[in-house]
C-alpha cells in the first residue's frame, strides 16, 4: 500500500547508484572529516576532544548512511555531505596551517 | 547461592511473561498482576546480581544472562503462539 | 498504513540488503569471535600443556621484573628504559615482561624484548620460558600467546588480511552490524510482544524467519554493543586516534603523546625504583579484591620514575590505574574517570573488556560465547530467509528446499535443538531451482555455514601435531592458517558440487564432530595429557575445554548423521516420484 503521494511505479530508492555511492564511501569520508574536525571545536576538555570524536564516529557514519539512502531528495544529501566535508576540511587546513 | 536464586527468579519471571503472552487470560487484573509479578522477579534478580558482583559487572552479566535465559525459555515454552499470515513487506 | 509506509519498506530493504551483502564475512568473524573469547587464557592452557593452571604463591612482581631486566641487559647491553609486566591470569599461569630500551631523547621507545615467564614455577631463573624481540606493540599481537591463540584472535580481528586492511574490513563489518541491528529494531515494531513468543509456523522459511526474529530481539543489546565496540577497536587505534590526535594538537604528535600518557620526561638521575611487591600490596589494601592486569614502570631506575598498576576493582568492567611515584614508592593518584588523564586507556580498556567479555570470570565468557554463536546463527538465518524470498520472487518456490534444510546444522551451532529441526516432517519435495544464482548462494551459505566450524575444529585438531612438528610459533601459526582456509574452501566446494545438499552438509557436520574428537585424542597422545589427568590435577579450564569438545562432538555427530540420512532418504523418495531433488 503505497501512500498517495508516491505512485506505485516510483522505485523504493530513486537514483540508487548515486545514493549507494553517497551512503558507503561518501558517508565514510564525511564521517571521517567530521571526526577529524570535531577535535578542533568540540566544547569539551583537551583529552575528551580526542576521545569524543572517536566514540562518535560510528554514530556519525550510521546516521549519514541512513540519511543518504532515505532522504527524499538525493540533492539534499549531496549538499549536506559537501558542506560537511568542505567545512571540516577548511577547519582542519586552518588548524594545521 | 545468590547467583542460583537470581537465576531461578529470571527463569520464573520470564516463564510467567511467556505464559501471559501465550494464554492472554480475559481478566485484566490477572494480566496486570502477572506482568507485575514477572517484572518484579526480574528486578529482584537484577538487584541480587548487582549486589553480589558489583554494579558494572552485575549489570553486564544481567544484560547477557537475561537474553540467554529468555531464548531458552521462549524456545522451550513459547512455541504454540498464534499463527500470523506472513506479508512480503515490500522487498 | 504505518506497516507498509515508504520509510518502513526502505528500512526493510536496507536491513535485507546490508545483511545479505555482509552475512558471510560477518558469520566468519562472529563465530571465530565466539571461540576467540577463550583464546588468550583457557585455550592457551589447553594448547600448551607446559602452561601451569595455578600461579605459584611465591610469584613476585619485583623478582620477575628484575630477572627479565638482568637478561635484557646481558643480551642487548642496553639500559632498560621502561618495562611492562603482564600478570598471570586465572587458568593460565603465564606472565609476560616487556622491556623497552630507552630512546635517545628520553622518550619511551617501542622496540624491545618480550619475556614469557611460567608463573607456576615461581620466579627463579628457570621461570623464563620464552623470548621474542622486536616492536613490542606487534609482539603483543602475534607472539605472546600460543599459535592456536594467535591464529584465532587474528582471524577474528583482521581475517588474516595484511594490516591495516583487515582491521578496516572488520571495522566496516562492525558498522554494518550496527546498521543491521538498528534497521532490524525499526522494522520489528512489536519487539517485546513478539520476543516472548516463538511462533512455529508451517513453512520452513517462515519458521527460519521466526527464529531470526526471536534471536534478533533478545540479542539486540549484545549486537549493538559488539558492533559499536568492534568498530571502535578496529578503527580507533589504526585510523581514528592518530588522525584526531594529530589534528587536535595542531600536528604536534609529541605533545599529544605527553598529554595522553601524562608522564614527564626522564630526569637523567639514577635512583632505584621502589619494590614493586610493596606497591602491589598497597593497591590491594586500597582496593580489596583488586585483580591486576598489568604494571607499567616508566623511566625505570630514574629519579622521575612512575609506576602505574592497572587492573579491575571488584565489580568493575573498566580498568582503574593506581599511580605511584617510582623513586619513593608513594601513592600519587587513582585514575579512572573520563575527566582525568587516564581517559584514553580507560575507554579503550573498557572497549576490550566489553567486546571480549574478559571481566567477571568464566561465566561472562561462556555467556559471550553463547551469544556470539547465537548471533552467528542470526546472521546466517537472515541470509537464508533472504535467499528464500528472493529466490521465490525470481523463480517461484525454489531455493527453499535447498535453503531451509540448512536450518539444522546452523541451529545446532546456535545451541538450539537441531535434531528436532532436522527430523521435522519433510514437507513437499523441492523443485529444481531455476533462479540459479540464488540456488548457488544457498549452497555457498551452507558451505560457509558448516565450513567455518569445520575449519575451527580442524585447527583445534591440528594444534598439537603442529606444535610437535615445529618449534617455531610463526610456522605453526602459518600452518594453522593454511589448515583453516583449506577446510573452509573444501566445504564450500563440496556444498556447491555434490548433491543432495542436506547429505553433504550432514557429512561435513559429522567431519566437524570427528575433528573435535581428534583434537582431544591428539592432545592425549602428543602432549600425554588425557582429560582424566587434567581432572586429577584439578585444572578446571582444561577439563571444561575437553568436556565441551567431546560434548559438541557427540551432538554434532548425531545431528550430522541424521541430516545426511534425511537428505539421502529424500532423494530416494524423489527419484521414485520422478522429481529432481537439489
From TrEMBL, chain A:
Keyword Transmembrane helix appears in the UniProt entry = yes
Q: Which UniProt keywords apply?
A: Membrane, Transmembrane, Transmembrane helix
**Which chain regions cross the lipid bilayer?**
20-44, 50-69, 76-96
Q: What is this protein called?
A: Uncharacterized protein
Q: What is the lineage of its organism?
A: Bacteria, Pseudomonadati, Pseudomonadota, Alphaproteobacteria, Rhodothalassiales
From TrEMBL, chain B:
Residue intervals passing through the bilayer: 6-21, 33-53, 59-78
The organism sits in which domain of life?
Bacteria
Keyword line: Membrane, Transmembrane, Transmembrane helix
Name of this chain's protein: Uncharacterized protein
TrEMBL record, chain C:
Q: Does the keyword Membrane apply?
A: yes
> What is the superkingdom listed in this entry's lineage?
Bacteria
Q: Does the keyword Thylakoid apply?
A: no
Keywords annotated in UniProt: Membrane, Transmembrane, Transmembrane helix
| Pfam families listed in its UniProt record | PepSY_TM
Q: Which InterPro entries match?
A: PepSY-ass_TM
The UniProt transmembrane annotation reads 12-39, 168-187, 217-250, 366-387, 440-463, 475-498, 505-526, 538-561
* Record protein name field: Putative iron-regulated membrane protein
According to its UniProt entry, this protein's organism is Rhodothalassium salexigens DSM 2132
| Record lineage | Bacteria, Pseudomonadati, Pseudomonadota, Alphaproteobacteria, Rhodothalassiales
